[in-house]
Amino acid sequence: MNNNKIYFLLLSLIISNINNVVNSQQMNLIKANPPPGMMDGNSQQCNGGVSLVFNADFLVDPNLITITAPANAINMVLSNQNQYSLASQIFYFTFDIASNAQNQPSVVSFTYNAGQFNFPNAITVVCNRVNPSDVVVMNVGSVYYYPELSSMIATLRFNFTFEGFPYFNPSLDLSCTIDSNYHCSMVDIGDQNNIDIYIQLLAGYQSISETISASILYRGNSFGHQPIPLQSIYPWNVTNESNLSFFKRFFPPNGTSYVENFAQLASKVTTIQLISSPVKLKSFLIYNTVDADYYSGLKMMANNVDGATYVGGLFGFATVTSSYLLGSSSTKLLDDISLTKTPFALGGATLFASGMTTALNITLAKSRMNVTNTMTYSLTTDINAQIVVTLKYPSSYEPGLFQYTTEVPIPIEFQGNVNILISVPNSFTYYTQSSNIQGTSQFQIYNVEFVKVSTFTSIFRISVYSNFEIVGFRTNNGNYNMYSSNLDTIAQQMFLKIFNTRGDMITIKSDQIYNSNLNVFPNIPLDYKGKLRVANFDYFVFEKSTMDFSKGEFNNTLYFNFTTPYSQALELLFYITALKVDLSILYPTKYNPKTNLFYIDFSVPSNIVNGPVSYLISNNVDYFYSYSLPIPYITISNSIGSMLDPEIQSIKAFQSTSIRMNGDQSFEVGWNVTILDLYNSFTTVSYEITSNIDSLKRFVNTTKTNSFISGNSTHGIYAVRTPFDINCKSQILTISNVVFSNKYETYFPLLSIIGANDEKELTINLTCLSTPDSIAPVIQKFYITPSVNVYSLNRTIEFSLAVSDNDNGSGISKRHLPYILLLSEDGIQLEITTTININVNNTYATYYGVANMPYGFGFRSIVVSVYGLVDNQLNYASYMSSDLLASNFPYNIVRVSQPRYPIIDSGTSLSSGGGTLGLFGRYFGSKSVFNAMIDYKDGAGFKSTPIDFYSGVFLNLSTLTFPKSIDVKVSTGGLDSNILTIVASDYIPPAPTTTPNVTTTPNTKTCPGNPICNNKGKCNLQTLECECIPKWYGPSCASEIIIIPTPTPQPQPTSETTYVYDSKNITSVVEVIAVRELDDIYNVVNEYQISNWTLTIADPKLITIPTYYYQTQLGNTSTTLNVTIEFFSNQTERQFGGQNISISPSSIKFSISIGRYQFQSKTNYLQVVMGATIQGSDGSCSSKSIGSGNDNNVRWIKMNIDKTSLYGRFITYGIIDGNVELIQNMLIEDEETDSSQTRTTKVGITIPNFDDSVLLDPDFSNLIDVNNDSNENEICKSKKKLSDGAIAGIVVGGVVAVAIVIGLILYLKARSKYIKESKRMSSKLKNMDK
Fold it and tell me: Which keywords does the record carry (predicted)?
């Protein structure tokens, strides 16, 4: 058969304008649009659709339209209809039709009303069939062994292509047969006509050979070609096998019957098998088999010269499996593995629903759900478009019953059923909403088009009308109301649903006629030629094919190029497949113009297994596993060779599994955990604790040293403690998860305890004999930003909340922070977490929150709900919008939509040679009033630049050459957008220079002080910080607090304090200086010098401690920076990131929050630069010390003028996107010259890449030293005596002139610097006195 039939379609013929007049009634078929071409499936039938457009003088009933010919056409079903007028009645039907071996066309005829009107030969359809003889294997690639799948893999190249058959996916129809003792399968790799064959060795084999024969089948039929020979890489040539001795363990014990409790861990509980063998790896393979078609390898997690350790077990939902040892000539059944689970009974859910109309021209659809268990639930309100609200807190609690509530705004015009549902536990209800607004929905689609932008990206445009306002669009491939990314290269067809405020919708599909102009909905444009293939890789070399860890070779570089230009090359990421996916181990591609090569720098952990290591290169569109690439693996030698997780060997409840407390004082409960860590692989561990009635899980984050009780570093007992406040509530607690810092997570760590004797120790029954309290906290005051222009560059919203518990109540819980939920009619929502300002007493608290509202947020209205008001006895309260309205609190934010500033979201990669730059954004406006500008950073500022392609959401600009980076902005109608910085993709930053940290003391592996901590505290060996006993403060517990006056508010976030000690004026200044974006090696790529602060002073009636709020934006970005400065006159306990922080009296705390920021790269950091200065009026000596622990992460700074000092603490974690994560506090060296009277230090709080928000929390105190610690870097005031230098000058004589000139210059520079600093400080002091 001619192969051209596979490549090219026989286009369908259309016969239009078929006229019928019967009994004075007229019905004409004016157009019929069949699919462009179809490919049959396994049933040898094609599934297609046809649009029929009729002109009739009556309303056509689609149920009366049937197919009369051919006989093999079946199942004609109406999909949708649009009857705009009698003259243009459009119907879209789906149908099945059989193929034939000759690919002959089928002529389709229709009839209406049992033959009243006939439409013969209306369309011609070709249902293509591919016969087995048409498919040929053109090439067989090299064979590789892929250890992660215990499979041999080879790539087969066929003669077919996807071109011309948009719905043809041959991998679904291909299968294989293979020699006995083997199993094979065909796997699509999305690489045009390349498909992989996977081969596994079967359990129960008798012998294996050097070569393997495989045959390829298409739909069960052979091609008639010769079998394909494949070289076996299984150990066929091993003639002798030594005795195989094994050490086997199971977590939990094999055959365990697990009964799930309220922590709901069943999905994580599976049986893990650990197998260790001293036999060399090349002589055998190990894998599990679940059934005849599913194979899964035991993953090697440790190896060395003595053998290897594998981890495997039950996979997916399997409850029984078998594991086998596959040797060179025999198979040994190791174990049948089984596990039974009894799920926790969630109980039923009772749903209630109602609606309430407000003055905002919306209806609030209220849903209430009563359940017997507390957890995070998702309530869905379905009005054609689904609005899903995730609820973290109940709205009320009675013994044995939790109530969860949502309130969703729906348009006032909506009419129909409002469906309320929850999937777990399954429940459904609805109410019917009527509207006083009259009318029937009408839709009219004027135009639909795709504009191809690049290989993977197209702009989707639609022009549509409805007599009710359109709410949104939904498609099978996501939301296409902005721009779309073609991630699916097979699913070319698309369907589109359009919703309006009435609650009605229309649906159209690809190839369907959608309007009276007979326009056809286009297919998504695909570009297979632009897709990256394995064959496109040209030069492909690793700097080190073998990495010898004994030589410190932990870093490597991959160099590569392409046979043809590939525009998405810089989007490729490199990843070691043996590791858990983590942002920090996804390595980006860079380009070096000098070598004309792309390269990826990467590193490998020191404890990865020895031997071949696989990798993956991907841009989330194309995935290239190493076995298919020119170099299939990297070889590792002399590593530690163990990726095994630390093993929890025992857990004991502290002090008992049953605890009774009076509730009149705070206390701790917890566990003592015995951990085996042979390779010291973890430094920190996080414990998740779940309660049966507390919806907020507890997280205890510990280090290996600060939780150590006894044992040693490889086998120790560690403490897990969580605090409870007074007036506690009786409840059941259990450890529900453990996360070690080594990041491998081979298995769920609690599996070693489940099924063992200590499983009962996981749960603690806490009985609290507190005075009962059943009244939840209430809101006393509530403020929220009244209106926001959602299309401006400053979309900051703030709110404050005052909450009280009743006078005899249990007290407001400090653990539970309320959150604000913003919702709009289109289902878009924004959750804002609060921070607690101060607990005035146990029954009163104030909270503050700030967020940057997403661009264009909402539809018409933005309503507000408050969740998470909780007291110590876990009485819950929430305020829906209607509750806030009834309490005379603000319940909405006015959504302002004018003027509309354009915004740039992102840009494409661009080299320093210039060329085409693509910009994605929104509201670029009309081209006639649009301008694009580039600042090449050559001193000329922004200049207009040519626009090659323009649309409202995407631009192509022509750019010139530039050395490092450019700034881009756009303007429409005189309104400027944000500024986007584009760093040249081929820019190679200079290697960072390291400056010895001569100021850091102490530089030993212990805490400061002589003796250590001056015998007034305990040394934390992990952080190298002293934990001082009361009264003593500072890094070495050698200082007492100086009581300072309350700092006065400054125009910028600066805290300045002047006090007198020992007849000397001492001034300390702490300030936020700048925010910088750093690349992955800490070079500065953007720096924002902060200005234009907005200052708000907290109402002292609402907040009793002095509190100053500052807010600004970072340059021309839309990122908001908020700084809160608080002064604490008394000792205070605060919570940050789930940890208690003790703030000493007379201290100043900075709380810093940053909103969403557009990073130039996913591997970049953001750094907040803070400066601290202390100055004395007549000091004799100054000194500075830095505490940075074992990890070089700055934890404290201390600067002295004689005995007085400024002491700052920097927490090594922040709250990033709502999660507690480590940050890096870095000492910043600059040209500041310290003197005997002035000391300055700058610290960069460095934050990893984030999506939405960051919270930071440093604090500062002024101290007086009681014990004198030695200071190696003291600078003291010069004494009036003849110095050694003067004597040398007299003796040498002849060289004194030169020495005097140089010395004088240095002196004048230092004095000028000192005078400037003195003037700056004096100016600040004068401002304070005004």
Answer: Disulfide bond, EGF-like domain, Membrane, Signal, Transmembrane, Transmembrane helix
Share of the chain above pLDDT 70, in %: 80
Burial group, residue 998, by CB count within 10 angstroms (0-12, 13-18, 19+):
exposed
Q: What is the DSSP string of 1047-1111?
A: PPP-SSSEEEEEEEETTEEEEEEEEEEEEEEE-TTS-EEEEEE----EEEEPPTTT-SS-EEEEE
The model's pLDDT over 1211-1263, given as tens digits with 9 standing for 90+, comes to 888 888 767 778 888 888 776 667 878 888 899 999 988 877 787 777 777 66
The residue type at 1036: S
Contact criterion met (CB below 8 Å) for 488 and 842: no
Number of other residues whose CB lies within 10 A of the CB of residue 1167:
23
Q: Which DSSP category does 478 fall into?
A: B
pLDDT value of residue 1063:
75
Assess whether pLDDT exceeds 80 at residue 427: yes
* SS3 of 409-460: EEECCCCEEEEEEECCCCEEEEEEECCCCCCCCCEEEEEEEEEECCCCEEEE
Q: Which residue has the tokens 């060289």?
A: 1295
Q: How far is CA 287 from CA 26, 256, 325, in A?
A: 71, 22, 7
Query: 156-213 pLDDT, tens per residue?
Result: 888 765 444 444 566 667 888 998 888 888 887 766 677 889 888 776 676 777 888 9
For residue 69, how many other CB atoms are within 10 A of its CB?
15
Report the 10 Å Cβ neighbour count for 709.
12
- What distances in angstroms separate CA 1263 from CA 494, 1145, 1147, 1184, one per listed residue? 68, 11, 10, 14
Q: Which tokens go with 994?
A: 């390291």
Angle, vertex CA 1213, rays to CA 1105 and CA 993, nearest 5:
120
Rounded to 10°, the helix 1296-1329/1284-1292 angle is 150
Strand partners, 1065: 1060
Q: What mean pLDDT comes out for the span 1091-1104?
A: 75
Name the residue among 21, 93, 102 with its Cα closest to residue 51: 93
What are φ and ψ of residue 750, in 5° steps? -80, -5
Taking the C-alpha atoms of residue 533 and residue 155, their distance in angstroms, rounded to an integer, is 13
Q: Among 223, 230, 159, 173, which residue's Cα sits nearest to residue 4?
A: 159
DSSP label at residue 644: P
> Is the pLDDT confidence value at 560 over 70?
yes
Contact (CB, 8 A) for 627 and 615: no
Q: Write the Ramachandran bin of 1292: left for phi over 0, alpha for psi from -120 to 50, otherwise beta.
A: alpha
Which range (39-53, 763-777, 796-810) has the least confidence? 39-53
- The 10s digit of each residue's pLDDT in 1131-1190 is 776 767 666 677 888 888 888 888 888 888 777 889 999 988 888 876 578 888 888 766
Rounded to whole angstroms, the Cα distance separating 553 from 547 reads 5
The answer to whether the CB of 11 falls within 8 A of the CB of 33 is no
Question: Cα–Cα distance between 1252 and 854 in angstroms, integer?
Answer: 10
With contact defined as beta carbons under 8 Å apart, do 1280 and 1256 qualify?
A: no
- Rounded CA-CA distance 718/846 in Å is 36
**Where are any strands of DSSP class E within 283-373?**
285-291, 294-297, 299-304, 307-313, 320-326, 331-338, 340-342, 350-357, 362-371
932-974 pLDDT, tens digit per residue, is: 999 999 889 999 999 988 888 889 999 999 988 899 999 999 9
Report which of 122, 74, 121 is spatially closest to residue 98, judged by C-alpha positions: 74
404 in Cβ contact with 375 (< 8 Å): no
- Mean pLDDT value across the chain: 79
pTM for this predicted structure:
0.72
Contact between residue 39 and residue 46 where contact means Cβ atoms under 8 Å apart: yes
